[in-house]
Amino acid sequence: MNKIITGEDYINSLKNRKLKVYLLGELIENIVEHPMIRPSINAVAETFDLALQEPALATAISPFTETRINRFLHIAQTRDDVVLQNKMQRRLGQLTGTCFQRCVGMDAFNALYSTTFEIDKKYNTDYHQKFKAFIANMQSQNFVIGGAMTDVKGDRSLAPHQQVDPDLFVHITKRTHEGVYITGAKAHQTGCLNSHWLLVMPTIRLTENDKDYAIVGAIPVDAEGITYIYGRQSCDTRSMEGGNIDVGNAQFGGQEAMVILDNVFIPNELIFMNGEYEFASMLVERFTCYHRRSYVCKSGVGDVLIGAAATIADFNGAEKASHIKDKLIEMTHLNETIFATGIAASYQSKPTLSGAFMPDDMLANVCKHHVTKMPYEISRLAQDLAGGIVVTLPSEKDFKSETVGHLLEKYLKGKAEVPTEHRIRILRLIENMTMGRNAVGYLTESMHGAGSPQAQRIQIARQMQIDFKKQLAKALAGIEKDKKKILVSEISDYFGRVFDVNV
Amino acid sequence: MNKIITGEDYINSLKNRKLKVYLLGELIENIVEHPMIRPSINAVAETFDLALQEPALATAISPFTETRINRFLHIAQTRDDVVLQNKMQRRLGQLTGTCFQRCVGMDAFNALYSTTFEIDKKYNTDYHQKFKAFIANMQSQNFVIGGAMTDVKGDRSLAPHQQVDPDLFVHITKRTHEGVYITGAKAHQTGCLNSHWLLVMPTIRLTENDKDYAIVGAIPVDAEGITYIYGRQSCDTRSMEGGNIDVGNAQFGGQEAMVILDNVFIPNELIFMNGEYEFASMLVERFTCYHRRSYVCKSGVGDVLIGAAATIADFNGAEKASHIKDKLIEMTHLNETIFATGIAASYQSKPTLSGAFMPDDMLANVCKHHVTKMPYEISRLAQDLAGGIVVTLPSEKDFKSETVGHLLEKYLKGKAEVPTEHRIRILRLIENMTMGRNAVGYLTESMHGAGSPQAQRIQIARQMQIDFKKQLAKALAGIEKDKKKILVSEISDYFGRVFDVNV
Amino acid sequence: MNKIITGEDYINSLKNRKLKVYLLGELIENIVEHPMIRPSINAVAETFDLALQEPALATAISPFTETRINRFLHIAQTRDDVVLQNKMQRRLGQLTGTCFQRCVGMDAFNALYSTTFEIDKKYNTDYHQKFKAFIANMQSQNFVIGGAMTDVKGDRSLAPHQQVDPDLFVHITKRTHEGVYITGAKAHQTGCLNSHWLLVMPTIRLTENDKDYAIVGAIPVDAEGITYIYGRQSCDTRSMEGGNIDVGNAQFGGQEAMVILDNVFIPNELIFMNGEYEFASMLVERFTCYHRRSYVCKSGVGDVLIGAAATIADFNGAEKASHIKDKLIEMTHLNETIFATGIAASYQSKPTLSGAFMPDDMLANVCKHHVTKMPYEISRLAQDLAGGIVVTLPSEKDFKSETVGHLLEKYLKGKAEVPTEHRIRILRLIENMTMGRNAVGYLTESMHGAGSPQAQRIQIARQMQIDFKKQLAKALAGIEKDKKKILVSEISDYFGRVFDVNV
Amino acid sequence: MNKIITGEDYINSLKNRKLKVYLLGELIENIVEHPMIRPSINAVAETFDLALQEPALATAISPFTETRINRFLHIAQTRDDVVLQNKMQRRLGQLTGTCFQRCVGMDAFNALYSTTFEIDKKYNTDYHQKFKAFIANMQSQNFVIGGAMTDVKGDRSLAPHQQVDPDLFVHITKRTHEGVYITGAKAHQTGCLNSHWLLVMPTIRLTENDKDYAIVGAIPVDAEGITYIYGRQSCDTRSMEGGNIDVGNAQFGGQEAMVILDNVFIPNELIFMNGEYEFASMLVERFTCYHRRSYVCKSGVGDVLIGAAATIADFNGAEKASHIKDKLIEMTHLNETIFATGIAASYQSKPTLSGAFMPDDMLANVCKHHVTKMPYEISRLAQDLAGGIVVTLPSEKDFKSETVGHLLEKYLKGKAEVPTEHRIRILRLIENMTMGRNAVGYLTESMHGAGSPQAQRIQIARQMQIDFKKQLAKALAGIEKDKKKILVSEISDYFGRVFDVNV
């Protein structure tokens, strides 16, 4: 296969693969042309086109190949690399109005890069070297990588090895000289069908008894033994109705599927962890650290929704009301908070032992935690500005109908100079983003992706250095008067990074 | 036609009417059997069945006919009548999980009852008498009444008579000895197809130049000249897919359509306002006063969603986590706030000149204003408890499929003792209520029904008696020391009701 | 002593008592004339004057004496009695801008009334009869009653009998034929010095080992063995500086003190529980049920603060800005939510076995829970409208100074027609209510009085009938299809009251 | 005078100045030893001591003198310089628990540096050169600079030249060959008495008629013609009572005074704007841009309050309750949001024409806007954790009293191993920060400093590029399909900075 360059190349690269994909109870022959799937492919294709149009933003020079590569395949060498991820993510959110599905792979790449380094350091293994070779290969082809982490989990109160059905977490079922075979299922796999390779990783902290679950490896999306079952989304079948209005955003959408692995083979050279169970938590935590601040993308999606809300206010002739303006300001304030907290995490990045840079984990969690709330409030305000018509609008077919189309044209007229269809299109976009297909990505995925709200609270609790803060209070309350002030260079963990003078 | 008694009678009463209804571009022959429409009919049918099962809650003795009638057709004779409306509304919200569409008619009946009384008092007209006759007739048949108020409005900055197209507000186009002809369109008409009669009313404050718009009258739903265009709802076509899982709530739904009136005739005896433009605002304000506190129904719907969220936590084995319990408490706290503020408005009812009781307008607005926010937060928390699976779940057809059904059965297993299908059903109910069909009623209708948030803020501002409060502050600040304390009996308006000792 | 009629009578009745009161390290001879204490006495005096001015609001006919008595001493005979408590409380909040300290006694009276009835029913004791006699006596004198519940508690993880120091909860130290002796301390005693009698009650659920702690009795405020230590409040000493501006609210304030009981005697006829430990929780829960919705008073205080904020906006010439108006609306919306949820609890009152009416416990908790947040937000908005000057204003002495007074007069001028002193007075009132003396009552007491926020969440959890709600959800999800609908008359607890058709 | 090095040097430098300072109606001879003033001096002294202990954090190399100087006197040469300001501010917030008063001068220095550069560029004046000389002089002495911007403003609806009294904004009253004389008053002057020099600046956008108001210059704090009137703070006189417990934070406090200028002379070489009225808005906007993100200091103060809340939970034995831990997490989440949004603004700094770096104005406003709310919520939660005792605690004098001290020791005991005095000290610190002296800085100054909430909303509105966002929405809605995608390098203003690839 030739190296993928353009979005079109990418779309072509997905054709003619032998995948077992089920959707609405049927086996899908051609995912590329399926109207329910295509918008999600288009969204990934934007990551290629952006790299061509904006190389400084969306590409980087690979330290492994010394060639220019897509930033989604790049290991962050500097703090600026981490920051530029966020900038690229916001721009892609603006251009697609949805999830462009390539961040999981990017964040998995970076997390695994430093984790394999540290496994090797401890065990003298060669995972890091093998992983670098894999990265270089992916970069040379410009492939899309899916990060397959979330297991289906079964009974949440039991560890992997304790489950009645051992397959409820992906695990090794057979070991040969050539490699291993794995079985299990990964849920909510964003963009999996649109990827070329999957990086399979454990999803939680593991113990010695879970050794067979401590497996990381790369498998091609069309590997033998994989079945994909496509997830339903709100209003998903509208894309099969033939029009392009009621879908709201005709071009772009997200994708999530369940990936079922039935004795899928991973050859030795593509195995990057194999039994080193104590590193599972490091991998998960580093992945979520990168990924939680990757939700800066939602500020780009938010830009679209704010724009849509402002547009419908214009079309309704209500744009000058002070409460309308005030709501747009509030939406912006919230949206920029997502951006600011995420990019602050990126700017506060520090190098790992491997040299790759990693964002600040506290601020990454603060960012993601806002993302579990603010898009919902932005969405609520967008519905406020839209008016009730956003949920009572007749169908595109009625608008196009010879019998009643003219009635709707007459009675849905807002401002004289605005075509009724434009008003309807913006309303359908708002519906799409607040309760339709892209609400899945903008809202519910914002809630649960990279960990549900409580996961962030736990991580914030771990890092909040409450003892350090108690010392501050006790000193000022006169309880501990004579303590010498601690030097900032002696402060560790989060506050060590806060007060790191090497900005 | 025989008097309608049961829900089944009601459903039968809707058959064989000659309506011009368009849905997805097609003329619908039989609305009763249409899978997209039927759930909304079922919801109205519940208002009949509840009256049979719970007469004390859902019926009353008519002062006009001295027979027992459905409470939705009753003019509130006492404060308790107003309170019992709320209790009935919450119960119906619990039983249907959606909008049961009969409140608009009830609230229009009550508002128009006292308004016609006051028009007659001023102009010596006979609207009130005619309206009482109409009410008695409706009661004797147990008909469903739709209140048709919201015009399409065109350019929001222009009065009705100023619009380029005069039809953008419903108005009289012709007057004869027998009655009047009206033209225009009413948007977002909740339950209109499911009604037997429509009460057409103006939607805003009118001035002398808008006299032709000051028309109130009753028309049968199947009157000549009416075209209905059915509104799309999120995920609406799922009800046409054949299953009963993916729809989430297979039995009940809401309904909103656009009603287009093309020279529809109203005979004199069914005209209840005709040119008395200065009473338009009284009618609108009284209607919204009743209707804003009718949103107590959403606390009943909220009960269902809280129950669904608690159930999925059980099914996931997460019910003991303190943060889960805390979120259920928060949802309850919010939900009961809706109930409490609404029922407080009802309890603080006062009689109008006509003798009919009307809720407290300040508290009704406080209630509705919470309704524009709290269901969104309850919904967000429900999605939090549901987990990401609520938006990535494969289709019912996949679950039922011979090829992959067993895989989903295996991998979507939660707690051992819970059937996988039950888990899926609850997840689909949560999807239905937070982004699917019933999210339309639970969220967006909560935002915009009975007036958008800003409408409540304006009404709160009108009633907040800021001068009275300034006096209180000035007295305590020592600015106005010598003022004698005002007697509570001398306090008027809202605080007059607050301090009314005749509880 | 003559029966107390007027506020002045009341103030006189406090003179010449032999109390051991410590304040700022000194024994106070004359609490009535002490400038730091007097404002709290004035606030209680208002409860007498209001009864004279507004008998319908602030008095009732005693069923025991058949004479007109102050409502604070009345046992609620009807739902309307409970509602009128709230109306009276809001009015007194408006008139004093602070805590008028008489609700604890009223709520303790009512809670103890029904609890003694139920103890007697079980044990055939005569507490209820004795308590009625005590009530009649208090009514005949129009005394002020303090309810002494909150123990100092020591180590929160230990039960009363487990504490190293047994005195950390009030308990019986000696029993004689004539009565019992008690020792311990009650913290945060609102208005205790301003009362004539204290009702001592346990503060938590007790077990068999805590029998000596299960003591309820009445003691005169000047009983032998009591020491009072007055609590400091923010800015308390300003009242000793001589002016009347910097204090903000010169006339009224709150009062809280610690009451230390050293072998204080209670004669048999004034003992209303003695060892029936299992009724301690009933007493506490009924008291908090009444008391949590008594915080409706804060909506009256909120009226003053909203008025002050509106006034300062006027004085600054900023009253027409849309954001100013919008903030006043928001403050009102929040303030009325407190009122509405509280009065809804009162309207939903039901009779206890004793015949006395008790508010709805769920709604009472919803009310109080809002009170732990909304006054803080109202206060924040008041500071927003006030401008920074509210915390940088020079002192009254500077304004009155010959040297610099004219400079302040010149430079603190706002609108030409408003005297500078008026502007300063309103600013000082806002300071008083948001961070000064009356912020203690308006904010922190709103947080912790009648139980801290978590106490309400626990009580809401107890009453939220989550299983009932799960059934609603399961029915609509199609999990439990064939269940017959439950009759509302078969629903118990909270929803039993919600759907009680005997409004 | 020798160069100031240590905090002690600084304190000495304030002695023996001839200032006219009024406080509580009296002329203060010695501000340094005045117990109400000294804590504010101590807070400034910390900025000197920190520079000694943490030179990398709190000093920089001056480009003008090439020597190491205090960072508060440094003109930001790089983005890192801007970021390090924030890091230093958070640390000082942690160490003092209050406002350390030196940021206004730092931010004024930086804003004026670039503004004078741009005035000179337009008018060929020499302000920039003169200002650099002034800076070098201040650096060589390590002086404290106060930025005097906020005029008293009089009638807010009138421009400076329209006021009845022309002195309500500071203006030139006389011009001579040697310089100018100015008259007027500056309100809310943080740390003015603790400064050595004041930079007088206009406070609003000016027009041609306001030319006499377009004056910027430096004056020594002890210049002839200045009168200072000290602002009262909540609980201010506690510092005069003799103890060190009830004050809460005995060592540190803030300071605000009114500065009245009566024909104060500014020599030509210290004039940095003189009539170039159109640059007033540039100066104000740049100053607020720096200053709004300087409120990152409040995250340091927040660290102390979170520590105090955690400590009191420990002392009460409540630290293990899940709701306690959850509230500490929430406080941290809010507190870190302040930090993250502020430091994001600093990291996104860009150079001005003068070469000095300036933060991102949108993000600076987002930061400050959060600061107007989040400290209030953190404060509310701290009061929640503290318990009601925080406002009912008896006085230090009672604790120390021979008569009742032992009773308080006994009854205020919490956990056995914690000295009662420690518990009291932490409670007093919480009172101090949430309603006492340092609440002035932590809350009300957070609300109004650097502009009240509405000022930030206006600035966010100016920068939100709503047309750009509308384009994004229209493109995705299919309204404007054929538009070529704009290059990020062609995007200007805020999004130009967002997408600037030169990180």
UniProtKB/TrEMBL annotation, chains A, B, C, D:
Organism: Emticicia aquatica
Protein name (Swiss-Prot/TrEMBL): 4-hydroxybutyryl-CoA dehydratase/vinylacetyl-CoA-Delta-isomerase
Keywords in alphabetical order: FAD, Flavoprotein, Lyase, Oxidoreductase
Record has Metal-binding as a keyword: no
Domain of life: Bacteria
Ranges for domain HpaB/PvcC/4-BUDH N-terminal: 6-273
The EC number(s) this enzyme carries: 4.2.1.120
One Pfam family of this chain: HpaB_N
Domain HpaB/PvcC/4-BUDH C-terminal: 281-478
Top class in the EC scheme: lyase
The keyword Electron transport belongs to this UniProt entry's keyword annotation: no
Molecular function via GO: 4-hydroxybutanoyl-CoA dehydratase activity
